[in-house]
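Researcher: Sequence recovery benchmark, item below. Answer with residues only.
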C-alpha cells in the first residue's frame, strides 16, 4: 500500500500536537492521519457528543474505532461514520461552526493516534443518555458527553443493564 501525502491541515495539526506534547515533557509518537479520516472522526464526535465534553468525544471516537476493527462494520472511519442510520442525521454534511469544532478535531486526532476512553473498552454502540431502551442484551460501560455506551451481550452475561451515572474528567487533557 502506498502512503498518501499529508495535506496542509493534517500536517499542521501533527506539528501543533507535537509541539504541545513536547511542552508537557511527555514523549509522544506521532502517527500520520489522513485528512479525510480526521474530518470524519471529528464530525462523529462533534455531532454525537452534543458538543459537550472531551470525555464524551473520546468515547464516541473509541466506538468508531471499535467498529473499524470489527468484521461487522466498514474498515475505515469514513465508512463507519457514513453508514446510513448509524450516526446523527447530517453528520457528513452539516457545518461544524461553533466553539466545539476545535475540541472535536483535537479529540479526533488523539483517538486516531491511539488514545482510547478507559471505560468504553469493546463497546460498539451508544445512545442518548436520556433514552430508555427496552432490550435485555445491553451491557452499559459508561455514560459520558450525553451518551450511554454499551456492549451487546447474551442476556445472561449482562451485569449492568441500565445506563450508569455520567462520568466526566477521566481522559487526559
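Model:
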Amino acid at each position: 500500500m502506498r502512503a498518501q501525502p499529508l495535506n496542509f491541515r493534517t500536517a499542521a495539526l501533527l506539528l501543533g500536537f507535537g509541539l504541545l506534547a513536547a511542552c508537557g515533557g511527555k514523549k509522544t509518537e506521532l502517527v500520520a492521519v489522513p485528512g479525510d479520516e480526521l474530518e470524519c472522526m471529528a464530525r462523529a464526535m462533534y455531532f454525537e457528543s452534543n458538543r459537550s465534553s472531551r470525555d464524551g468525544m473520546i468515547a464516541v471516537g473509541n466506538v468508531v474505532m471499535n467498529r473499524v476493527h470489527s468484521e461487522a462494520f466498514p474498515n475505515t472511519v469514513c465508512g463507519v461514520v457514513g453508514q446510513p442510520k448509524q450516526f446523527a442525521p447530517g453528520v457528513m454534511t452539516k457545518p461544524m461552526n461553533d466553539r466545539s469544532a476545535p475540541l472535536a478535531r483535537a479529540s479526533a486526532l488523539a483517538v486516531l493516534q491511539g488514545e482510547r476512553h478507559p471505560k468504553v473498552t469493546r463497546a460498539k454502540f451508544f445512545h442518548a443518555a436520556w433514552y430508555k431502551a427496552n432490550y435485555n442484551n445491553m451491557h452499559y460501560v459508561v455514560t459520558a458527553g450525553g451518551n450511554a455506551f454499551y456492549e451487546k451481550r447474551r442476556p445472561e452475561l449482562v451485569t449492568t443493564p441500565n445506563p450508569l451515572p455520567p462520568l466526566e474528567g477521566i481522559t487526559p487533557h
